[in-house]
Amino acid sequence: MYEHDVIVVGAGGAGLRAAIAAHEAGADVAMVTKLHPVRSHTGAAEGGINAALREGDDWELHAYDTMKGSDYLGDAPAIETLAKDAPEDTITLEHWGMPFSREDDGTVSQRPFGGLSFPRTTYAGAETGHHLLHVLYEQVVKRGIQVYNEWFVMNLAVTDEPDPNDRTCHGVVAYDVQSGTVEGFKANNGVIIATGGPGQAFDHTTNAVSCTGDGQAMAYRAGVPLEDMEFVQFHPTTLPSTGVLISEGVRGEGGILYNEDGERFMFEHGYANNDGELASRDVVSRAELTEVNEGRGVNDEYVHLDMRHLGSERILDRLENILHLAEDFEGVDGLVEPMPVKPGQHYEMGGIETDENGKTCVDGLYAAGECACVSVHGANRLGGNALPELVVFGKRAGYHAAGKDLGEAEIETGYSTDVEDETETELPITPGEAGIEPVSTSESVATDGSGQVAGGDALLEQAVGAERERVERLMEKESGTKHADIRSKLQNAMTRDVNVFREEEGLKRALKEIQECRELYQDVSVEDPSRTFNTDLQMTYETRNLIDVAETITLGALVRNEFRGAHWRLENQIRDDENWLKHTLISWNGGKPSIWYRPVILEGEDKTYEPKVRSY
Ligand SMILES: Cc1cc2nc3c(=O)[nH]c(=O)nc-3n(C[C@H](O)[C@H](O)[C@H](O)COP(=O)(O)OP(=O)(O)OC[C@H]3O[C@@H](n4cnc5c(N)ncnc54)[C@H](O)[C@@H]3O)c2cc1C
Questions:
Q1: Which residues have C-beta atoms less than 6 Å from ligand 1?
Q2: pLDDT tier for residue 424 given thresholds of 50, 70 and 90
Q3: Average per-residue pLDDT in the chain?
Q4: Membrane topology for this entry (predicted)?
Q5: pTM
Q6: Where are the alpha helices (DSSP H) in 402-534?
Q7: Which terminus of the chain is more solvent-facing, meaning fewer CB atoms within 10 Å of its CB: N or C?
Q8: Is residue 566 part of a domain?
Q9: 374 and 334 in one domain?
Q10: In this structure, are 359 and 256 located in the same domain?
Q11: Same domain as 300, residue 221
Q12: Using one digit for the tens of pLDDT, what is the confidence trace for 85-108?
């Protein structure tokens, strides 16, 4: 068994920033990660990081844009913290060596991004995330923080009191990809989950194969609610054949969208008369699909993104990476022809419910980054707002898990363990319907329903034993269903029915198919007999996580019968503030999901953000 004060699961932007902070606070910190840190998906971030750095801009404008972008489903205290802390945390990155692009006078460049009232997206070419990872990893190496590379975390070691608010996390169980052994990692102070998003629940996504929602599913099974999972961002400019992202930076620099008839449809068809291509992502994605659905798409599938008029000098200076992506994945030369683009799954706005210090309802368990929902993005994330979230809330989670008091910064959000005022809702369709039961009720608690065991060591040993047994069961099974078949059924259902446009019938169909995936999973087997580098085994674990996460996305979407941000519903195409100004929370409760709601916090430090009609 390995032992540290703080264990950070995941080494993307959020995990690295959290580890640095925990180390600064004096903790013995270690990172456990299934990928080498610089291979984390943060490396794919192209466009930039939002921070109010310039004269004429201020944190209040950033907060206002973020609240409006969230379609009034973000919590004001968390949004204000993001906007206030982002400038200092971005400057810290610069001091650590982040090679931000610069103007001729030497000041850091900032570009316009969708939904922003000021050009506040700071960037390093079109490779911002790549540089961010390298800069943060350098700091981790410099501090001598231990990194357990290519260790796949399978489960959390959490006690199993009946009320999740009484539970404690003592560590994690992980599989060493290189040796095939399963070991426990004890955390004396806390575990921080920073495992990124669940994009692989969809088959057309900008997310890497590693984005499988592992941390969200593990926290969920340990009793922590997942918040606002129905809000999935579909990015308007992904390459049709692969889902590879063409950064919003292209539109930020002046790129234009055209339909098959050569119309600049964002203006000519009235989707966003003021901001056009730089409207918020949900608005542009719906506009593109409407063009395609109404017969004005190119090849009935996509639209064109044209940047030729920017000139080769500017493109090569600021968007060179985009040229390579278009050429390599679509065979298109962006200097001489427009690029084909269509919406694709990009970001999960919801996640593990946390307060502003990353704390969950389980003692000793924290979360930060895309896997978490501190509630800054609400129903729609603004481009460039995920990277500041990683550094602002990653840092806070790291300090807090190490036991450092953040003084006045320690403001709680609406996170509450008291559910008296919160409404619980009947599920419209239950996992038991159609004769399909959840995978196993014994999966409901991270320790596998083992009962109370004295002390963290014993609990961890027990959790390790349970995972070793699970591995043996999976490996020894002679034949069964392949994880890849289950995963592809799941991805097809999600992409078909839980996409940009949603309706009750499709959502119910998707939910039924997700439940069928659960049933199929009971027969899953691992074909690869090797004990080392067994990606078959790892992906079998990941597929189980995707099933759990996909179910919460779909359930939340089915019950929320309104149109807000990225969540459009055929049956009710208006935002319904009277009934739906509230967060969805889904808990794994006694072997099945239960759903309940908590009001959105619109009161900031000095003002209340009154919901307004959201137009661009
Ligand atoms: C193509 C693309 C471009 C983007 N561009 C921008 C942008 O310009 N600006 C912006 O603000 N946002 C952008 N985003 C969003 C943003 O980049 C991501 O939300 C963010 O980087 C996620 O960071 P993270 O640290 O939460 O997760 P990740 O960077 O995905 O890291 C997750 C880590 O968890 C580890 N992990 C996962 N599961 C396990 C497990 N079971 N066991 C052990 N380790 C595990 C992985 O190894 C990895 O180290 C973009 C997203 C994409 C997909």
A1: 9-15, 32-35, 40-42, 44-49, 128-129, 152-153, 194-197, 206-207, 210-211, 214, 245, 346-347, 369-371, 384-387, 390
A2: low
A3: 92
A4: Peripheral membrane protein
A5: 0.93
A6: 456-476, 483-497, 504-521
A7: N
A8: no
A9: no
A10: no
A11: no
A12: 999 999 999 999 999 999 999 999
Closest CA to 174 of 42, 31, 365: 31
CA–CA distances in Å: residue 205 to residues 201, 225, 492, 553 = 9, 25, 12, 15
How many residues does this entry show for the chain?
A: 616
**Both tokens of residue 207?**
């997310």
- Choosing from 7, 17, 42, 123 the residue with most ligand 1 atoms within 8 A of its CB, the one to mutate for a pocket test is 42
- Name the pLDDT band for 280 (thresholds 50, 70, 90): confident
Same domain, 177 and 144: yes
Domain that holds residue 367: 2-232+346-401
Position 204 in a domain: yes
Q: Are residues 160 and 257 in the same domain?
A: no
The CATH number for 269's domain is 3.90.700.10
Residue 413, pLDDT above cutoff 80: no
In terms of domains, do 22 and 147 share one?
A: yes
In whole angstroms, give the CA distance from residue 121 to residue 112.
6
List, for residues 512-566, the tens digit of each pLDDT value: 999 999 999 999 999 999 989 999 999 999 999 999 999 999 999 999 999 999 9
Residues 356-381: tens digit of each pLDDT: 999 999 999 999 999 999 999 999 99
Q: Positive or negative, the Cα torsion across 474, 476, 480, 481?
A: positive
What is the rounded average pLDDT of the residues 219-248? Answer: 96
> What are the φ and ψ backbone dihedral angles of 259, each rounded to 5 degrees?
-90, -175
Domain-embedded: residue 491:
no
Binning pLDDT at 50, 70 and 90, where does residue 453 land? low
Q: Do 218 and 289 fall within a single domain?
A: no
Which run of H or of E encompasses 185? strand 182-193
For residue 421, pLDDT over 80 is answered with no
Other residues' Cβ atoms within 10 Å of the Cβ of residue 573: 9
Nearest residue CA, atom 52 of ligand 1?
45
pLDDT of 441: 33
Beta-carbon contacts of residue 571 (< 8 Å; ≥ 6 apart): 503, 504, 561
Q: Are residues 272 and 208 in the same domain?
A: no
Which of the listed residues 362, 385, 401 is the one where a domain comes to its end? 401
Name residue 430's amino acid: T
| Rounded (10°) angle between helices 59-69 and 76-95 | 120
- Residue 10 has a pLDDT of 98
Measure CA of the first residue to CA of the last residue in the chain; give whole Å: 54
Cα 358–229–197 angle (5° rounding)?
65
Domain count, the chain: 2
Whether 281 is catalytic is yes
Residue nearest to ligand 1 atom 35, measured at CA = 10
Decide if 113 is inside a domain: yes
